[in-house]
Amino acid sequence: MVRTEMPDRDDPSYVDYITLTKEQYKIGLLKSIFFTAIAVLVFFVPLSINGKNDILFGYIYNYFVNLFGNFGLWIVMLLMIGNTLGSFYGKYVAGKDSFFHDYYGHDSVLHPFLYLLGTFYTVIYTLHVNVAQFTGPEWIVGSGTGGTVIPSIVLGVLWIIIVGAFFMPFLLNYGGIDFVGSILEPIMRPVFKVPGKSAIDAIASFVTSSSMAVIITSKLYRMNVYTKREAATIATSFSAVSVGFALLVINTAGLGDHFLKTYFSALLITFIISIIMVRIPPLSKKPNVYSSGKVQTDEERAGEAKFERGIVKRGLDRAAKRAYTAESIFKEIFLSLKDGFFVIPKVLTLLAAAGISGLIVAEYTPFFQWIGQVFVPLLQILGVPSAQEIAPSIPVGFAEMFLPVLLIADQVDMIEIGARYFITVMSMVQIIFLSETIVVMMATRMPVKFWELIVCFMQRTLIAMPIVALFMHLLF
């Protein structure tokens, strides 16, 4: 294998500087095809087992959820207690050269208190579920607050991260994304101003979960595949709701008979919004700098982003080179699991703190009702029926994407179908919400600030409203 003017391995153009012999190329291509095929089977191919349709990732993830059951709550609770104690020690006591300072030193001064809040919620819920003599307060353990966040989101994300970390190297480290990126670059770069590889993130969110998509984006950002601007754009624009969860949301709104047109119109609207979002601040102002500090050049952005003869061959060449130079699969899995376990305590604790707090505000205060009134005149201008009834559902999506539909669930028979379509699609295209995507972005230290996420949520909401209303009038 001959290397000339070889850049650092962290350089995104690394593979283009590699020359392989015919034998090396053959080995690399076979490795790429084999490992990528496993990834495709795990993440993207629906299977029917015992009458249930899901992807293999879903079956494995559900197996662990069911295997551990309520015992998983004790595991999560102990992780959170350790994380909270460690955060106070690391942030305010530990020396600068210690592991605890290195792990918690980048957190804000508020993080230890958020960890404490999330741990408090989880301890109360765990004792309520597992100890017969203990009854937690309804506002923490009720089905509309902790009963929604902890069993389905916190425990779910625990196994999503672990199972996802095990299989991610098959998807990311052996050339699959290099091939996809080369093929889709002519579309993704000019339209969305992101690499073709970002299509992997979008597909992952559709078939697995928005958390998995954010984790993949974070991983690729740290691998210097994405710049800060690209990572922030992809995480806030393409981490859409999965097909499975979309089905639950759509059925709850009484739109099960209209699933296909509701779901696919939501996907189309998501991409339309993203085309606009990447061209306005704060996303457009993010620097095109890799996590290593290297500045992306105009030549790298332009790349070879056009359809031409040889585009498939270029993708295959990059895939073969990436696979040939990758570490063994066992080492890659070990490193990926290590990264996954590294973020689990922070992610889970913040999910509990932010998710349950947001739902408590939504369930027990008129806060979102008040904010919702701001949207009534705009809904009326757009010709959306039942404006007064659905207006509070628009801002509540910031707390949890399922909440907008839950707020109207007991009024399904009274609210017009167009209004139900409007609020269902709005909840699916807002993408940014406290109980999951925001927390995962913060915990994995994506290059985006909390206030920027608030701004992006508001922008996506305001941009989406007239577009969703247009589709509502066309389809219903």
TrEMBL record:
Pfam families xref list: Gate (PF07670)
UniProt keyword list: Membrane, Transmembrane, Transmembrane helix
The organism's place on the tree of life at top rank: Bacteria
Annotated ranges, domain Nucleoside transporter/FeoB GTPase Gate: 155-254
Record keyword 4Fe-4S present: no
Keyword set includes Transmembrane helix: yes
Coiled-coil intervals, chain numbering: none
InterPro entries for this protein: Gate_dom
TM helices/strands, residue ranges: 29-49, 61-89, 109-128, 149-172, 230-250, 262-280, 347-370, 390-409, 421-444, 450-475
The protein's name: YjiH family protein
Organism: Bacillus aerolatus
Organism classification: Bacteria, Bacillati, Bacillota, Bacilli, Bacillales
